[in-house]
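To the wet lab folks,

You asked to see what we're planning to order before we commit. Fair enough. Below is the target structure as tokens, and below that is the sequence we designed to fit it. If anything looks off to you, flag it before the synthesis order goes out.
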């Protein structure tokens, strides 16, 4: 967070820096959550942006990194998504209030956009095939892999 020089009031600006070369959908979600939490905490947030590496940039030498990052102002979008973020929070609260954990099979959603740290635990709760179909050589072309994941194809118990 950076303070914004403003004579009328003290406000803040958030710039999240990513090592990617573009803005991804999950970055937009992260930014919306950060804006919501910051505003809910009573912090006067003026703007929020995402900076990422400029894929066209080249290093000119002499420790000159000017232009390495491109900044994208996502303030308007983030502020408009406050209701959506509140819904996510309410959904999370509803899950926590359940008497038992959700029964959701592992699949592609467990590694999108990143590997879930609970995947090993969740898989340990599922019946595992003795010979997984994934072991078949040269079978894992993207279309076949997507079909297997989408349809949760497993060896019958």
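Sequence we intend to order:
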């Amino acid at each position: 967070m950076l303070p914004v020089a403003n004579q009328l009031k003290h406000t803040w600006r958030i710039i999240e820096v990513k090592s990617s070369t573009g803005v991804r959908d999950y970055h937009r979600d992260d930014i919306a959550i950060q804006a919501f939490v910051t505003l809910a905490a009573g912090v006067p947030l003026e703007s929020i942006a995402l900076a990422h590496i400029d894929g066209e940039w080249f290093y000119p030498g002499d420790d000159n990194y000017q232009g390495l990052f491109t900044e994208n102002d996502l303030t308007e979008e983030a502020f408009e998504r406050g209701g959506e973020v509140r819904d996510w929070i309410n959904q999370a609260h509803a899950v926590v209030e359940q008497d038992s954990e959700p029964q959701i099979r592992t699949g592609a959603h467990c590694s999108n956009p990143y590997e879930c740290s609970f995947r090993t635990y969740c898989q340990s709760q599922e019946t595992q095939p003795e010979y997984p179909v994934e072991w078949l050589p040269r079978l894992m072309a993207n279309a076949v892999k997507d079909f297997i994941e989408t349809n949760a194809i497993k060896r019958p118990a």
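Structural context that might help your review: The beta strands are 2-4, 11-17, 45-53, 69-73. The longest strand covers residues 45-53.

Thanks,
Computational group
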